[in-house]
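Protocol step 4 of 6: structure prediction from sequence.
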Amino acid sequence: MGISIVVDFTRSRMLLKMSKKHNSQALEADALHFSTDIWSSCVVIVGLLAIFIGEQLSVGSIWREWLFKADAIAALFVAAIVIHVSLKMGKKAIDALLDATPASASADIQLSIEALPGVLSLQQFRIRQSGPATFVDMVLHIPRLASLEEAHAVADEAENLVRLTIPNADTVVHIEPVSMNDSSVIEKVRSAAAKKGLGAHGIRAHQVRETLYLEMHVEVPEELNIKEAHDLVTSFEQGLYSEIPDVTSIVTHIEPVGDGAALRLSESLDSAWIVKEIMAVCDETPGIIDCHNVTILGDEEKPSVSFHCRINPATSVIYAHKITAAIEANMHLRIPGLDRIVIHLEPAEGHGND
């Protein structure tokens, strides 16, 4: 019987260790089974020893009667231990079936996630156990204008926070875009444009008494014809009227996004007359200090040009943009067939706020 106790003890310890490592209730129950065998064997040994000792005592001794009952008392004690451990395991099994988790761990994880930059709110959070695996799913609200990369970064951070508490958790993060401020007209315009696969910039909202007028530039795929582009933008405008009920008028300027064929086979052109015209336009434009690094690509019939211009460092971005717009307009008049103009503005060293 002693050998049986040693073997059962060894097996029980190994099974309990593996059950904790793999988070397995089946192995834990098996470890409990061998533990009860140990206690039962111990009760038998205690009972036999008590009876043996009791027989050595004289008849009528109070200890003799109690020693003869020691086997039954020890059996009741072991039964109480087994019942307690069984109830504890039963509760764990029921908790697993009901997806119950420690409230403190769940609360700590939720507080950490809600504190993440870019997270407006944690809308839903659930943890459930399935055998050795732990599954976590959540719904996060983030600003609707966040880019795909920003949303993915927030989801990664949320998963990492979960793994700090539950290392092997299988985590699913669902992202929902929401408006940060219901009164943000620009936010709503850009969101509505993104739903149609369009870009919007230069957005202006004019509030005239109780009337709201919207003006903006809308970027459409350059391969569309004007009818297709107009129909797409009209659908976008109708969505805006529903999104922003206060709007009474929307005026859009349609322009190509310019990424239909980002990579093009071109040749570097050496056109002295185009360079001369560029320099002349820059010299005639107020605010331009000098022009350099002129590059001409494409072909003679439809060239694309790019160049750098230095301006006063104190020039505002708005005024700088007006300067480049004036240069582009003048160049299109003086250089027929010009395809694309890219002007890089940079601050001129040595010029102050004069």
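Step 5 (inspection) to follow. The first helix runs from residue 2 to 22.
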